[in-house]
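## Example record

The block below lists the input lines for one assembly entry, exactly as stored, with component labels intact.
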Amino acid sequence: MLGLLKAMKVTMSTMTRKPVTVQYPDEHKDLPKRSRGFPTLLWDFDIDEPFCTGCQVCARYCPTSCMSVTMQDNPKFKEGDSKRRKIVDRFYIDYARCMQCNICVEVCNFEAIVMNNTWAGREVSRFDRRDLVFDLEDLLKPSTTGRLPDPFKAPMGIAHHGWAAETHGETGEKATAEAE
Amino acid sequence: MIADNPWLDALIRLLAAVALMTFSSLTLIYLERKFIGRIQMRLGPMRVGPYGTLQSIADAIKLVSKEDLRPHTADRWVFELAPYVVFIPSFLTFVSLPFTADWFVRNFELGLFYILAVSGVSVVGVVMAGWGSDNRYALLGGVRAAAQLISYEVPLILAMLGAVMIAESMDLIDIVNGQGRVPYIVWQPLGFLIFFIAALAELYRNPFDIPVAETEVVGGPFIEYSGIRWGMFFLAEYTTLLILSVLASLVFLGGWNWPLGNEAGIGLQLVWIVLKTSFMIMLFFWARATFPRLRIDQLMSFSWQVLLPLSFLQIVINGLVKVYNWPDIVLLLSSGGATALALYFIYASVQRMQEPYPQRFTTVMTRKEPVG
Amino acid sequence: MPFETDHELETIDLNINVGPQHPATHGVFRMILQIDGEVVRDVDPVIGYMHRGDEKLSENCDYRQAIGYQDRTDYLAQFNNELVYCLAVEKLGGYQVPERAEYIRVILSEMNRIASHFMFMGAFGTDIGVFATPFMYTFRERERIQDFFEEVTGERMMYNYFRPGGIGWDVPTNFEERIRGLLVHVREGIADIDNLLTDNEVFVARTRGIGAISPQDAIDWGLSGPMLRATGVPFDLRKAEPYSIYDRFEFDVPVGENGDVYDRYTVRLEELRQSARVVEQALDQMPKDGPIIASGIPRIIRLPAGEVYQRCENPRGEYGIYLISKGSEKPYRLKIRSPCFSNLSALRAMAVGHYVADAVIILGSIDIVLCEVDR
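Predicted C-alpha cells for the full assembly:
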C-alpha cells in the first residue's frame, strides 16, 4: 500500500512542476552551434563565388555516396578577380541518403562545406523524395541569404573566421588549434 | 414537468440528457488529457482553440468524418450492433440520475437498482465487439472484458448495498437526504474503497485496463473499429466514468449536502455536486496516470478473494448495527478498522511476494512442429 | 438433460501474431505466441526485419567512414558502440590514446549508458501498463542528456564523434559544469522513477518471479549485461577485464537474486546510479587540457594485417567486434557480437508457461534494440 501511495505522491508532485515540453513548430529551442543539420555550401562574399572548387574530396569520402560534384575552370580567375583556378560547376547532394556523419566537412580542404546548424538544416521535409536532391543553388542558399551564422567546423571552432562574425556578431566558441 | 404535454416533456428531458452526455464526455476527454499531460510534465493539447479547449470537438469531427470500416470476415450484425449495445445502457442510466434535488430526467424509487442493473448490460456489447470483429486480439480482449466486468460488478453492487442498508432506501434522493451533514464515506470507508476499486475495473482504467491493454491486446475488443463506431465506445466509456463519479458522490460523499447544513439552494447544490464529482473524476485520472496494469489472474483473484469477502464483511457490520441499533460510531470504528485490516493484509501479501522467490528452472523445450 | 460425450471436449491452442507492428515489440520484432487461454504454450520469435547488412557496409568503408555505421547498430548506446570499434582499431593499430580523450570517451559512454537505461525504464513502464508516465519521466532526462550530446557532437542520435586514437574534436569549454548540472537532473529522474515503480505493489506483483532464469542457464544461453547480473553472476566487463581506463574508477556491480524481471529492473536502476558515480569520478580526474587525438594518425588508416576481438560492457551486455585486417584501408571482416541477439535467444525459455501479459514484459525486460539484433 505504501508503494502505491508513494507513486501517487510522485505523480502529484510532478504535476506541480513546470512542464518541460514546448510547442515545437511555434517555438524552436536554440540549436547549439555545433548542431549538424544537412551539409550545405558556403559563399565567399569577398569575391562573390562559392568557396568550393569542386575537388570532389567530399564525394569520395562520403560513406553513402550521396554527393556528386563536377568542376569547371573559374572564369573569374582569368579576369584576375579570384585566386581559385577551378570552381564548382554542379553539385548535387541527395539529402535522403545523407547520414549527417560530418566526414565531408572534416575532409574539405577549402572549408567550403559545412553542416547547416540552423533549423533550416533540420526541417527538410518534402512530399516527394526526389525533391530531396539539392543542387548547387539550393545548397548555397542558406549561406548567400546570410541565414547561416557561425558554421561550425572542427577543430577550429568555426569555419572561416570572420566570415559570419561581421554580420552576426560575437561567435563565442573557443577555438582549439589541435589539428589532426 | 417542463412542458404540458408529457411526450414533449420527455423529449426535452431526454435531449437535455443527450446534450449533457456529449458535452460532459468531450469535456472529460479534454480534462483527462490535460491532467495526465501535466502529471507527465507535458503541456497536453494546446493546438486547437485557446489552451487546446476545442481539441475534443476537433477529434469528434474527425471521428464522425472518418470512414467506417468493417473487416471483410467480421460477423456483420454482431459487429455493427455492438457499439449500440455498449452505448445505450450508459445513456439509459442517465435517465434516473439526480444531479440536484430537482434536476433529473426521472427519479425512480429503485433508482440505484435500476442504474446498477442497466449498466451491467454493456458487458454484452463488449463481448459482441470482441467476437464479431474476427480478430484474435479482439477475442482475447472481449473474453477478458467479460471476466473482469462480471467479477467486479459483484463487489460494486455489494458495496452499494451496504449504503442502501444504512439509508434504508434505493431512491437516490432519499439516500442523499438520509446522509444529512455526515456523508456515508465516514461511516462506510470500507464500502467506499471497494466501490472505488471496482469502479476502476468497470471503467477499464489502470490498474485494471486489462481488456484494452495497449501493449498486450492493442485496444482489445475495439481494435477493428474506426470512425464513429469507435467514437461511440469512447463516448460510452466517459459517460460511465461520469455516471460512476456522480453515483459515488451521491451515495458516499453526501451529494448536494455539505457538512454545515443541507438547506442549500439550487445553485449551491449544483456547486457541491460538481465539486464532489470532479474530485472523484480526478481520483480516476490520477490512478490512471500512476499505476501499472495487473495481470488477469491477479485481477480475478483480487476480486473474488479480497474484495468480495470484504464487501460481505461490510454488509455484516451494517446488518449488526441495524439489527441491534448500535450507535453509528460502531459503524465508523468497525468499518474503519476493517479497512485498516484489509490494507494491512494487502500490504502483507505483497511483502510476501517481495521475499526471495524460488528459482524456476528453465528447460529447453523440444519443438514438435513449427508454429504459425 | 446435460450434454454428454464419451471423450473430453477438445480444445486447440490459439496462435496470435505479436508484431512486427505491435506496441510491445520495441521495433520490428515479431513473435508468434501459441496460447492456451491466457497461458503461453510456445513462442516463436521472428527476427530480421531490420537487417541492413551493417557488417558488410562497414567492410566496404575505410576505418573512419565505418564509425558512422557503428552508431546505427545499437541506436540507444551509440557512444558505447563507437568505443568498442575504436578500441578494436586501436588495439590492432597499436595507437596510444591521449589521457584527455580517454576520459571524455568514458564520460560520454557512461552518460550514454544512463540515457539508454532511462529508455529501458520508460519503455518497460509502458509495457507494464502505466499510461506513459514513466516514459515521460525518463524521456525528460534522456532529452536533457541528448541536448548535451548535441552540444558536444552536433547530433542527437548518430554522433560519429569518437575516432580511432581519440575523439573527433574537442568538447565545449563548459563541458564539466554542464555535466555536473546534468547529473543533478539525472538523479532527480532516477528518484522519480524509483518512487513511481520500485515499491509499487502492482509493479512488484507483476514482475516478481516472472521470467526467472538460473545463473547456470543464463551462462549457457550466453546472456550478458543486466540480464546476466540479475541472476546473481557479478560479471561486468568493466571490472572483469577493464578496457580503456575503467580500472581507475570505483563503482559497484549490482547483482540480482532471482534473475526475474524485477531483478533486471532493479539492477538497471542501480546501474544508473553507478554510472553517475563513474562520471563524477572521471570529471574529477580528467586533465583540463591536452591533446584529444593520438599524434601520427593518418587520414586514411591502414591497419597491419591481423585480427582482433574487442569486447566492452554495453548497456545491454557484452558488445564485441571481431576485426580482421589484411593490411588495406578497409577491414577484411568485421563481425559484431550483439548482446541483444544472445539475450533474445532465451526468450522462449523464459516466456513459455507464463501469461500473455508476462510474455510482453519479459520481452520488455530484455531491453532489445532490434537494429542491433538484426544489424
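Chain B touches chain C through 48 residues (CB under 8 Å). Chain B has two domains: 1-65, 69-353.
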